[in-house]
């Protein structure tokens, strides 16, 4: 099973909003409401930012939001801040036999 | 607060078996309905799910690694383990252990440990 498809890079200026897409198939993203998003700064472990498509863990800023339409999930970051510059990965449940898929990752640059 | 710590050799020879342990502190590995899993990240690349084990003992493997991977839990030692056999240079990566409330939600991560496959 191929990884989920994310853009390699996105960029935005402080204060702006950006959206990162994560495209899969009806067997993974489109078939279940189990999509999560992770932020990873260089040399650090990933951090959970969104789970179950649109839920935010305690302590995660409400500037981060998630959604899904068909086979594509999206992560939106509003009011961009310098500390948001990082790599972002999506993850989806993919049913029996495949189980879990990650996206290839998106590098966010805050200009 | 629950914490996870990976341990194991940082260097493994090609064709040998990579063995890692994740020690759980601040909570019991058998006390709640969680999955425990392993994820890896080759240098400069993305994340790759390896395997997960449910608290009941059910195991789940990445189909591309299934023939070489074993995940297990030792409740007496409050840790879980990963074995990856017949390693090659392509298995060189930072290996993370994690606690997962659902299969695709990785809530708590270990700090990661770099394993290099080289002779």
Provide structural commentary.
The complex is a heterodimer of chains A (111) and B (119). In chain A, strands 1, 3, 4, 7, 8 and 9 form a 6-stranded mixed beta sheet that branches. A 3-stranded antiparallel beta sheet of chain A has the order 2-6-5, with no helix packed on it. Chain A is mainly beta. In chain A, 0% of the residues lie in helices and 46% in strands. Chain A has strands at 9-12, 18-23, 35-40, 47-50, 64-69, 72-77, 86-95, 99-102, 106-110. In chain A, strand 7 (86-95) and strand 8 (99-102) form a beta hairpin. By secondary structure, chain B is mainly β. In chain B, 0% of the residues lie in helices and 50% in strands. Chain B contains no helices and 11 strands. Chain B has strands at residues 3-7, 11-12, 18-25, 35-41, 48-54, 59-61, 69-74, 79-84, 93-100, 108-109, 113-117. In chain B, strands 2, 4, 5, 6, 9, 10 and 11 form a 7-stranded mixed beta sheet that branches. In chain B, strands 1-3-8-7 form a 4-stranded antiparallel beta sheet, with no helix packed on it. Chain B is globular. The termini of chain B are far apart. The mean pLDDT of chain B is 95.
Task: Sum this structure up briefly.
The complex is a heterodimer of chains A (111) and B (119). Chain A is mainly beta.
